[in-house]
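Note to self: user wants both folds in one dump. Writing first protein now.
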Amino acid sequence: MRTSLTPVNVSFFLLLAMVAGLTASKAILSVGMIALLATGVWNWRLSGTSFFLNPYKTTVAGLLIGLFFIAVLCGFYTENTSGWLRDVKTKLSIVLIPLALLLLSPLRGRQKYILSLVFIFIQTLWAIITLGKFWKNHAEEMEKVRQNSNIDIFGSISHIYFGLLLAFACILGLYLLFRKNTYLNKPLLYLLLFATLINLISLHILSSRTAQVSFYLSLWVWIVVEIWIHRRWKESLAVFLILMLLPVLAYYTIPSFRMRIEVSVWDYNMYQNQAGIYKDNSISSRLLAWGEAWAIFKENPLFGIGIEDVGPEIERRLIQKGMYQTVPEHLKIPHNLYLKYLSGVGIVGFFYLLLVIFFPLKNAFRQKNTLLVAFIALTATAFFFENFPERQIGIVFFCLGYLLIPDFE
């Protein structure tokens, strides 16, 4: 049967491509966003879809777009013009995607599940390929973990960003299995179960601390909310108790997971005692950057110093204190979205960021949408350790989740 070329079908194809592009290709994301907006305009011209058709989605989209205008306003007082221009260019994504999804008709039920499964299976495929590379160079990769470094991920994606995608794939897989929706027949359920198990194992082996902490917090939040909202006490409590044992089981059965925890404890203790090469360690250097970002905020509490001026200012302060002659690249940003907004745009921008992140919770509880609650918990936790909505992959993931998941229930 021939599929008609309609905005709904084209947008679904584009969303599938963008979900794949999150892991596989930044070029797909760039082209996909523009094409998705063009499809939205096409849909609007054909069907007359109004911006105000869904007041909730309109508000969320408007809040997301507001982050772009905050970046633009920083241009009035930034000293880092080149960094500011780069930031504004990157954050155009946070305008294109919400506008596109406002102009498009909502996805149909089956389409939402296909999109979810494609996202999960792509992470599974990437994890399997990465695990193959890991086992091929096992001694070398384990030495990286021992040296407080990261295991290489297949392709060009950062291990932190892949870790976040993998963590959400685990949550999404567990959610679909828990709900047993009629769109999932037996073969698909078994395939989903296999993929989710692979993703869970990979999440622990590949040892991204940000992903692991975000996963467990969002997992426990999701189960607690399931118990509270749906009153599924026996099932939810049983799942909760089993999943509580996961990190313990992983610690005693997965060497890279255990080693990452031990190295992290050593790293933190080095920072506390300011001993040895602590300032060159992963956690210690982040805590140093956090401290400098907090100091910048206290000196500029109302409007900050400009989002893209935070990195150069941290660099200047660390050199002035004699801690570095040349500051490493990873230290030139605070690796904490909340601190970056506090120091970059002050208390006003910080509270706006909190509004963007947590505004969907009200609708999530009204709709009993526990998946959206889990997504918010996942991203809100991840923002403590990385500035995800400051890069294209993070922006696309953030926007798609916030605007598509509310339609899931």
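First done. Writing the second protein, which came from a different request thread.
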Amino acid sequence: MKFLLPLAVLPLLAAQLSAPKAGNVRYADGGVRAVYGFDADFVLGPTWAKASTVAFSEKGGILALLGKIELVRADRSVLAEYPAPDAHPLLGISDGLKTAIAWLPSSGALVWWTGSRFQTTQLAGVLPGTPTSLQSDGAMATFLVTAPDGSVLRVSVDLASGDIDSADVVLGTRGPAYAEGGFVVFRNHQGLAVEQPNGSIRTLPYPAPDLQIEQMSSGWLHIHSAALNRDWALHLTRSVCALWRLPEPEAGQ
């Protein structure tokens, strides 16, 4: 028995089979899709989840869904769930699943994956501004926080105790800012600024007056402009610093 696929589906399947996976992106409608390809040649997969916030690495991801947080493996299978009433928690995952972490502003708590279960740590203090980025190494949580004057602070929190260990100004940056590995991304008057691990700043052309950032994979950030309703992929490695437009999802897919 033979099964025939519609001709329109064949190019998409061929592209996904031949192109590497750049990561997973949550679009403005909440639909989460895999992104395949490289440079400016990207192809979107079908919507596989609906979420309010997400963060992904090559090893898996953490998603905020209605009333809960899900931790998923690289194959998208669900490893664990945690009940969370926050509509838009701040999420992060740096590498393996043990770096998955969430900030719940309604309760002032950090929720992080120990390797076998979700652990909750109450913050013993008040963050000095609005948190915009969150990372974990399994022992410490690190926020980027925008202070009332627009400066950016790097705030480290001990996950065992919830104590704020340090709060240091990130020189040369303005909030909101987002950390990916040793890079810090923010917007300045010239465009999209990327502070590299050595402290130098590279600026890329960026036409939007605003930016919202989520991690789509290790070394890849998804940037969304609500003002322009456009999406970009920012690729950051030791040798690559490049920004490309992402395709827009087709209606009904």
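Dump finished. Worth passing along: Confidence is low (pLDDT under 50) at residues 1-17.
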